[in-house]
Amino acid sequence: EHGVAHLPLSWRSANSCRMGKEQYRNMLAHRKHGMMGVHRVKRGWVWNQFFVLEEYMGSDPQYVGKLHSDLDKGNSMVKYTLSGEGVGSIFTIEPSTGDIHALRSLDREEKPYYTLRAQAVDVLTGRPLEPESEFIIKVQDINDNEPRFLEGPYSASIPEMSPVGSYVTQITATDADDPTYGNSARIVYSILHGQPYFSVDPKTGIIRVALPNMDREVKEMYQVVIQAKDMGGQLGGLAGTTTINITLRDVNDNPPRFSKSIFHLRILETSPVGSSVGRVKAHDLDSGKNAEVEYSIVPGDGGSMFDIYSNKNTHEGTVILKKCLDYETRKAYTFKVEASNAVLDHRFLHLGPFKDTATVKVNVLDVEEPPVFSRLSYSMETYEDTPVGIIVGAVTAEDLDVGNSPVRYSVEWRKDSENHFDIDPVEGTLSVIEALDRERHTEHNVTVVATKVNNPLLSSKVTVTIKVLDVNEFPPELAFVYETFVCENAKVGQVIVLCVCVCVCVQFDGLMGSISDNTAGVVTRRGVFRRLEQSMYLVPVVVEDGGYPLQSSTGMVSVRVCTCNTDGSLLSCNAEAVIFPMGLSTGALMAIMLCIVILLVMAVLYTGLRKHKKKDTLMSSKEDIRDNVIHYDDEGGGEEDTQAFDIGTLRNPKGIKETAQLQKIRPEDEPNRASACMSNEDSEDIRAYIHHCLLENSSPPYDSLVTYAYEGEGSVAESLSSIESWVLEPKEDYRNLCDWGPRFKTLAGIFKEHECKDMEKTEN
What we know:
Layout (H helix, E strand, L loop, with lengths): L3 E2 L4 E4 L7 H12 L7 E2 L7 E5 L8 E7 L9 E7 L6 E3 L5 E4 L10 E10 L10 E8 L13 E6 L7 E4 L17 E6 L4 E3 L5 E4 L11 E9 L9 E11 L7 E2 L3 E7 L7 E8 L9 E5 L8 E6 L4 E6 L10 E10 L13 E11 L6 E2 L3 E7 L7 E4 L2 E2 L8 E6 L8 E3 L5 E4 L10 E10 L6 E11 L12 E6 L7 E6 L3 E2 L1 E2 L2 E6 L2 E6 L11 E9 L7 E13 L5 E3 L2 H5 L6 H35 L9 E3 L14 H5 L1 H13 L15 H16 L9 E3 L13 H7 L16 H19 L1
Parallel strand pairs: 1-3, 4-10, 11-17, 19-25, 27-34, 35-42
Antiparallel strand pairs: 2-5, 5-8, 6-9, 7-8, 9-10, 12-15, 13-16, 14-15, 16-17, 18-20, 20-23, 21-24, 22-23, 24-25, 26-29, 28-32, 30-33, 31-32, 33-34, 36-40, 37-41, 38-39, 39-40, 41-42, 42-43, 44-45
């Protein structure tokens, strides 16, 4: 029922009294036939809200409501106007009657309500009859939206073997309908696909495990379909679905298992240590770390020859050779291999032991090998006087293969020292082919090669060390020439000297020898010796060795009789004994005495020459001119005679040093020099100068004396005296003076005499 209100404006809505749809349709039909009752409504019955159904599908505009003012007398003098949201495009009003219509279908989910303003004005004057009023047209919801899963499809995972009721995941659906009006937005969840493994809570959407002992190795992936339905799940409600992919995570609930109980492997006997023999594998139905398998060899007889390595990537066990193999010694090995999980889950230990064992049989394959010597090396001995052709020793090698091939021997020639021996190719005996000499080689290393007759490419080598034994062919001798003394008051049994030897047998006139560790002591057999009666004893010492054949030699020990103190210290002996109590030889004493006499003579000559030089220097000049003082006793050219000598050498001290260096460079021992005294370039100049002088003066006197002034103390040029130069340079070679003519005969005779004396000294 619709009412009409007087001013202020009273609003009448088609559903303001919340009439049912049937009453609303009847109202529309009654209005269509023009039958509409109008009556006065109190001001308390004023509505400022209209309702319009969403999704209206009728052909005519949908009636919303009616506006009426109390000032409207029905004479069409009042005009109704409408303004606000959607006016003209969505809503329209009949100006004379105030009826409001919706021109098109509305969607509450797009816009739930509209705010409009209404006013009544005078048709003639256009002035408002009442103040403008605001009202709302609300779109009434219908169930036109199904529930939707905004985040689907979903993924989830749980451990396998999870108990019933274990939480998996939670899903949520949304409904765009009005949750405050009816049951359009009340959602109920249900499972369409995935039973009996999982369940869903109808109100919360939580998914849980519904079946116990779900095994990943049986089935790993599950697809569950969940439905969300509005209207509380009643018939006619709208529904939406989504998919949840559930994966079972692996746990270590399966032990490793070998695919077979026996593994057969093969390997060559010549394979080096560390070679791969083969692989074994135990399968574990788990995945990831739960499927990792560790392999080990069960201790036993055959397992000591091998080892096993676990590969984490392939989950295989690689058998590795640990020791060298020999087909002739052992042809097969059998051992057990154990496979176990590295990581255990204690929740599943009750299912049984998480390990498995298998048997591995390894067959050793025969390989043809070179001969094998009975020893790694051989050592032999033979005497150095062993005749050629005599057998020294023998080596033995054999073929350990099944064929047992004969072996032939040979010597590998690498060094000259190994050419002394040869070997019998069949018997393997080594014999001497050249004479041996222990003094040259004490031992010989011979390399013997053994070769298989059936396969000459296969050979092996061994080293034979042959030690050469010494043959007693040299007699022993005293290590030194012994000379000593004995006191006149020596006691019986007193040791006077020790001799180094091998075997000593001494007995001579009061003296005897005793042996002790290759040394012998000469001792007295009586207590009194007289020097005046016999001043020296020559004691023969027989030295013997212990070799075969026995060798011996005789040496002499010189013993002088001397006077000693009571404590044994020497007082007097003959001249040689007093000066040299340690027993120097007579020749050495004579040489020393000759040297002393020569030194005394040289000292006397040197003193005389110095005096003569000093006298001539004082007489040669009265003025102290130190630059260049030259005194001539002959009719020479004086200072202007520049060809007599090199004046630059006297003024330049460096010339003396250079000459000295040239003299040092000249070899000292050159016996074949018969025509030159010096070997440098200056010797040629001196020779030319001397030869020129000989050609100019062929008449006596042949000698001339040139005296140089004394250079003073500390002169860098040092002394220019030829006498002193001869003393300071005794090694000058003057043997060629004889070839220089009659002028140098006297000088050559002097130096020849000195040379003879020097040779005697050297020989002594």
